[in-house]
Structure formats: structure tokens, C-alpha cells
Design a protein that fits this description.
The chain is mainly alpha-helical and 174 residues long. It is built from two helices and no strands.
């Protein structure tokens, strides 16, 4: 068994080292390129997702601000109806009170001018009946005005509540 064991020469060792060095450089370059590509892809996806989220946020914020503005406008419209209704109600009430005072003055003048007790009783009965009928009619009229004003004032609010509920509970589009 006489085989000679050959020692690698320096040249062979140098070539092997160069081959290892080239292989390591190739692996490092490939790894770096892959990492760079993954990093750039991750950054692009992040940027895209941030842009989409920002657009959705600002779109949602704009819609919410617009919704609030429209709700405020409905409240102002409703308040205007209430104020006009109260003004009309006040005018009607003052007209009713003035007419009642005039009727009472006329009734008192008639009572004072009466010649007999029978005439006083008849005038008193007529006055009481007329006063009661007028009060009932005016009460019904004022009550009807109040109901109409309340309904008219509530209408813009009701419409905005419907829109707000629809927008707030509508599923968010993905």
C-alpha cells in the first residue's frame, strides 16, 4: 500500500479559495437582491395601503362633516318653522283676546242698558253661550295650529334622522 498522498499545492488552495469566494459573493449578491426586492415590495404595499386608508379616512371625514352640516341646516329649518308658528299662534291668541275684550265690553254695555230683569238674564245667557262657543272654536283652532306647527317643524329633523341612520349603519364598502 504504497500510495502517495499528494498535498494540495498552494496554487490549488488559492483556486479553491477563489472558488469559495466567488460562490460566497454570488450567494451574498443573490441574497441581497432578494432582500432588496422583498423590501421594495413591502414598502410599495405599505405605501399603497396607507394611501388607500388615508383616502378612505378623508372621504369618511368629508361625508361625516357634510352629514353634520346638513343636520344643522335641518335644525335651523325646523327652528324657523317653530318661530313662525309661535308668531302666528301669538297673533291669533292676541286677536282672540282682543275680540273677547270687545265682546265683553259690548255685553256689559247691553246689560247696563237692559230695562228688565228678564232682558238681563237673556243677555247674560246669550253672552255666556257666545263666549263659550268662541272659546271652544278658538281652542280647537289654536290646538290645530300647534299640531300643524309641530308636524311641520319635525319634518326636516325626521328626514335628517332617516338619512343619518342610513349612512351610519350602511355597511362600509371594502
Amino acid at each position: 500500500m504504497n500510495q502517495k498522498t499528494q498535498k494540495p499545492s498552494a496554487k490549488d488552495a488559492f483556486q479553491a479559495a477563489e472558488t469559495v469566494k466567488d460562490t460566497v459573493e454570488t450567494v451574498v449578491k443573490a441574497g441581497t437582491a432578494a432582500a432588496k426586492a422583498s423590501y421594495e415590495q413591502a414598502m410599495e404595499m405599505t405605501k399603497s395601503n396607507v394611501e388607500k386608508a388615508s383616502q378612505n379616512f378623508f372621504k369618511g371625514y368629508g361625508e361625516l362633516a357634510n352629514l353634520g352640516k346638513q343636520n344643522l341646516e335641518a335644525f335651523v329649518q325646523s327652528s324657523t318653522v317653530v318661530v313662525k308658528g309661535a308668531e302666528t299662534f301669538g297673533k291669533e291668541w292676541m286677536g282672540f283676546a282682543q275680540a273677547a275684550v270687545e265682546q265683553n265690553v259690548a255685553a256689559i254695555q247691553s246689560l247696563v242698558a237692559a230695562k228688565t230683569l228678564k232682558e238681563v238674564v237673556e243677555l247674560q245667557n246669550d253672552w255666556a253661550k257666545k263666549t263659550f262657543d268662541t272659546a271652544v272654536a278658538e281652542s280647537a283652532k289654536l290646538s290645530e295650529m300647534g299640531v300643524k306647527t309641530a308636524n311641520d317643524a319635525f319634518e326636516p329633523i325626521k328626514a335628517r334622522v332617516n338619512v343619518s341612520v342610513e349612512k351610519l349603519f350602511k355597511p362600509v364598502a371594502a
